[in-house]
C-alpha cells in the first residue's frame, strides 16, 4: 500500500513539473527583460496561485462528471491529458513571434491565466480519475511558482533557446501520462 502512495506522489510531481514548464518557458522570456527581484517574486506567486485555482476548478468539475459517466472516466482523462501534451509538444516545434504581455496589473492576470489554462484541463482529467486532490493542488501551485521564479532568474542571466525545449519536454511528459491512463 505505501508503494501506491509513493507512485501517486511521483506521478503528481512529474505532472506538476510538466504543467510548470509553460510557466518556465514564458518566464524565461520575461526574465530577459529588465525586471526587479520584487516583481519576479510577485509574478511567480500569482502564477502559482493560478496553477492552484485552475486545476481545483477542473477537479471539481471532473468529480461531478465522474459520478455521471462511471467507468469511462479514466479513458476520458487519458485522452484529455494526451491531447494537452500533444498540443504543447507541437507548439514547441512551431516558431511564432510572440508579443510578450507585460506582467504588470491586469497583464499579470492575463499572463497567469494563459500559462495555467492547461492545468484546468489536467485538473478535469484528475477529477475524473479520483486522484488525491490536496496533494495535486499543492504540488501544481508550488512547482509552477518555483519554475516561474527559476525561469525569470535564468532569463536574467542567459539568452538561449531553452524555453522552446522546456515546452516540448512538458508536452512529452503529459502525453506519457495520458497514454498511461489509457493503456496502463
From TrEMBL:
Its membrane topology: Multi-pass membrane protein
Main location: membrane
Annotated signal sequence range: none
Keywords: Cell membrane, Ion transport, Manganese, Membrane, Transmembrane, Transmembrane helix, Transport
Transmembrane segments: 6-28, 40-66, 72-94, 106-128, 134-155, 162-183
Compartments where located: Cell membrane
Record function comment: Probably functions as a manganese efflux pump.
Family indicated by similarity: Belongs to the MntP (TC 9.B.29) family.
Name by which UniProt lists this protein: Putative manganese efflux pump MntP
Organism: Virgibacillus natechei
Gene expressing this chain: mntP
Amino acid at each position: 500500500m505505501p508503494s501506491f502512495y509513493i507512485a501517486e506522489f511521483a506521478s503528481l510531481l512529474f505532472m506538476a513539473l510538466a504543467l510548470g514548464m509553460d510557466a518556465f518557458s514564458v518566464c524565461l522570456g520575461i526574465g530577459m527583460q529588465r525586471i526587479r527581484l520584487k516583481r519576479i517574486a510577485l509574478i511567480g506567486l500569482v502564477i502559482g496561485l493560478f496553477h492552484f485555482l485552475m486545476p481545483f476548478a477542473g477537479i471539481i468539475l471532473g468529480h461531478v462528471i465522474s459520478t455521471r459517466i462511471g467507468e469511462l472516466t479514466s479513458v476520458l482523462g487519458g485522452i484529455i491529458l494526451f491531447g494537452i501534451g500533444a498540443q504543447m509538444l507541437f507548439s514547441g516545434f512551431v516558431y511564432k513571434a510572440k508579443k510578450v504581455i507585460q506582467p504588470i496589473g491586469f497583464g499579470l492576470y492575463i499572463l497567469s491565466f494563459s500559462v495555467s489554462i492547461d492545468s484546468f484541463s489536467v485538473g478535469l482529467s484528475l477529477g475524473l480519475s479520483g486522484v488525491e486532490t490536496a496533494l495535486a493542488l499543492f504540488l501544481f501551485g508550488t512547482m509552477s511558482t518555483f519554475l516561474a521564479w527559476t525561469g525569470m532568474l535564468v532569463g536574467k542571466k542567459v539568452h538561449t533557446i531553452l524555453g522552446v525545449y522546456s515546452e516540448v519536454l512538458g508536452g512529452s511528459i503529459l502525453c506519457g501520462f495520458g497514454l498511461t491512463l489509457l493503456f496502463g
